[in-house]
Design brief:
This protein is of the alpha/beta class. It is 31% helix and 23% strand. It has helices at residues 9-13, 34-50, 65-73, 84-92, 107-117, 129-142, 165-176, 198-221, 237-240, 259-264, 347-350; strands at 29-33, 54-55, 79-81, 97-100, 121-126, 146-151, 180-186, 228-231, 248-249, 274-285, 288-291, 306-307, 313-318, 323-327, 338-342, 355-360, 363-369. Strands 1, 10, 11, 12, 13, 14, 15, 16 and 17 form a 9-stranded mixed β-sheet that branches. An 8-stranded parallel β-sheet has the order 2-9-8-7-6-5-4-3. 47% of the residues are buried.
């Protein structure tokens, strides 16, 4: 279904009907292959299950409540959100088990967190007493209890408490704080996603996750139950899920896959569900082709997007609205030809778009809005 209230009259007029072909799409746009998407979802859910883990995939990559519902229907226990506003949108869509994997600061956000708790069951992440005090004050005032998790720094050197005693001390504060329920710990081994050697990568991830396990042991020794131990990104999940002690995996980007995960992270078991569709708009020379997709359509920070199914062109640079491709051999594409591209990194690509054109085989089945796009606060 097209949510026409979010589209201008002009945009609505030119949206293709269900059953349309890819050639009927206006470009540039994002195209989602539903068969591949569903296969990726099934693989990730099964891999977590085979290792005795729950799956709580991160929603920051796909930014769509329709897709979030799909992963929950496939067996995910809920979703992980980057921001409070993203969690609010998910709750409004009926998804209630939400991990907000970020620290929340400010009185207004505390009020919003309390309001969210009244329609959903969020978990909020903290790494200091300041966070705990603010949540406790707001929760008591609002008459709610909020599940509270500690983020532990396991080597990422971003947010998080130090493993061991500092985490135990903060957990004690949470356990005593009215309106807060200590529910567990999380860490992110994101600093290890790009380790090239598989054996070294697995060993380094094992060491990082061991910090979570030792911290959990210290928590339990101190009489503080720790039912949730959460970690894992798409670039590491095949290794992370095999580590003992975890209860859930947060990896979500693998439902789409992209060149970063394939090339730099060496994730080989998932297929490319998301592509960028563009049109050749100019052939100024025999050696150069111009497409209508530039930096406002796709990202080139980690990898230049790669044409699918053709070796005669290679993207060399992007400007705001143009992609410049070198013709490598043969005559190359003609003006008006369509080009499909694999995204370099989906997180930095989807945020540039308003909707997914979802295909089943060769026919358009649905248009999904990226309705959590812009949820930054």
């Amino acid at each position: 279904q097209i949510h026409t209230t979010t589209l201008s009259n002009s945009q609505t007029m030119w949206q293709p009907a269900v059953g349309a072909t890819r050639d009927e799409l206006e470009t540039p746009c994002l195209v989602l292959d539903l068969d591949i998407l569903e296969a990726n979802i099934a693989k990730m859910k099964a891999y977590c299950g085979d290792n005795g883990l729950a799956w709580r995939p991160h929603a920051k990559v796909y930014k769509s409540t329709a897709l979030a519902k799909k992963v929950v229907e496939a067996g995910a226990i809920g979703v992980t959100c980057a921001k409070l506003s993203e969690a609010e949108a998910m709750a409004a869509a009926g998804i209630t088990d939400l991990l907000i994997a970020n620290q929340l600061v400010g009185e207004r956000r505390m009020q919003r967190l309390v309001a969210l708790r009244k329609i959903a069951d969020p978990i909020v992440v903290v790494d200091s007493q300041l966070h705990v005090d603010a949540i406790s004050t707001a929760a008591v005032a609002g008459g709610v209890v909020i599940r509270t998790m500690i983020e532990v720094d396991i080597g990422m050197q971003r947010a998080g408490t130090a493993p061991g005693l500092p985490t135990v001390e903060l957990a004690r504060l949470i356990a005593k704080a009215p309106g807060c329920e200590f529910i567990g710990i999380m860490g992110y081994e994101g600093h290890l996603l790009l380790v090239d050697d598989p054996e070294k990568k697995e060993g380094s991830i094992a060491e990082a996750i061991a910090l979570l396990n030792s911290t959990r042991a210290e928590l339990e020794k101190a009489g503080l139950p720790c039912p949730i131990v959460s970690a894992g990104g798409t670039g590491s999940y095949p290794y992370t899920a095999r580590q003992p002690g975890l209860t859930e995996i947060q990896a979500g980007g693998g439902v789409f896959m992209d060149l970063l995960y394939r090339r730099q992270c060496n994730i080989q078991d998932l297929d490319f569900a998301l592509t960028i569709h563009a049109t050749v708009t100019s052939r100024p020379t025999a050696e150069r082709a111009i497409i209508d997709a530039g930096r406002k359509t796709m990202n080139m920070e980690f990898n230049m997007p790669k044409p699918v199914g053709r070796d005669d062109i290679e993207l060399t640079s992007l400007s705001a609205e143009h992609g410049i491709a070198e013709v490598k051999n043969g005559p190359g594409p003609a003006v008006g030809d369509r080009v499909q591209l694999l995204p370099g990194y989906c997180d930095f690509t989807t945020v540039l778009h308003d909707r997914y054109y979802c295909f089943r085989g060769e026919a358009l089945e649905a248009i999904w809005q990226l309705d959590t796009r812009g949820c930054k606060w």
